[in-house]
Amino acid sequence: MRELTFASAIHLAAVLPAVVLGAAQMLRPKGTRSHVALGRAWVAALGIAAVSSFWITGISSGGRFSVIHLLSIFVLFNLAAAIWFVRRGNVSAHRKFMIGTVLGLMGAGAGALAPGRFLHQLLF
């Protein structure tokens, strides 16, 4: 089994609160002060997770980046778009981008926990 690198540790440290905060955001009322505060923390955690993923290269075959890194670009784009839309009062577009981001997070989590992957080996 591979060792946990510094980049992987940062990534996991950011992903874990992002998963919890993302679930809380989906279940709680929208538009409240706590929604905004939790949302800011969630965006920060997920942004750190996405950026740190570019230093995790063990899953690529032959190159520096792999297909999974496209998900990081997707997440960063969605976070920026969601913030842009909500600041302009377009809550509907904000909601769509955030839901897309949560779905991306769930997909990444499912992929990371798949048998044979590092996180699966680490946890199970």
* Low-confidence parts: none
What is the rounded Rg?
A: 15 Å
**SSE class:** mainly alpha
| Number of self-contained structural domains | 1
Commentary on this structure:
It is a single chain. The chain is an all-alpha fold. The chain has one domain. It contains 5 helices and no strands. Helix 1 (about 5-25) packs antiparallel against helix 2 (about 35-50) and helix 3 packs antiparallel against helix 4. The longest helix is centred in the N-terminal third of the chain and has 22 residues, at about 5-25. The protein is elongated and about 45 Å long. The protein starts with 5 loop residues before the first helix and ends with a helix. The model has no long low-confidence stretch (mean pLDDT about 90).
In short:
With 124 residues, this protein is mostly helical. Helix content is 73%, strand content 0%.
Identify the notable features of this structure and list them briefly.
mainly alpha, elongated, 5 helices, 124 residues, single chain
